[in-house]
Design brief:
Elements: H1 2-7, E1 14-18, H2 33-43, E2 47-51, H3 56-62, E3 69-71, H4 75-79, E4 84-87, H5 92-95
Parallel strand pairs: 1-2, 1-4, 2-3
Length: 99
């Protein structure tokens, strides 16, 4: 994992995940790589702040067992105060954000 090489220790870190759906413009999270990434980050002791324009409800059901995962109301809110950002989608909404 690139983050582990960069930070060396991941415990206590917070990471934003943008995009939870399997593909843009859908709420389908079945087999979404973002779900796997959220699970792996949480298992590594990382707190995850996630946002998706459409798939939040479905992701909440699919990842209900993750206590280190929280959901935000916007991409900007998800990115506030994090150590890293993981972009997991090609949503057009994320292309226009002021980084």
């Amino acid at each position: 994992m690139k983050m582990k090489r960069h930070f060396r220790s991941l415990k206590g870190r917070t990471v934003a995940v943008w995009g939870l759906a399997f593909k843009p413009n859908t709420s389908d999270v079945r087999e979404s790589p973002a779900l796997y990434v959220c699970e792996e980050l949480c298992a590594a002791g990382i707190r995850v702040q996630a946002f998706d324009p459409v798939a939040m409800q479905e992701a909440m059901h699919a990842l209900a067992n993750l206590d280190r995962l929280s959901y935000t109301d916007s991409a900007y809110e998800a990115a506030e105060g994090v150590d890293a950002l993981v972009l997991m989608t090609e949503w057009n909404e994320f292309r226009a954000l002021d980084l």
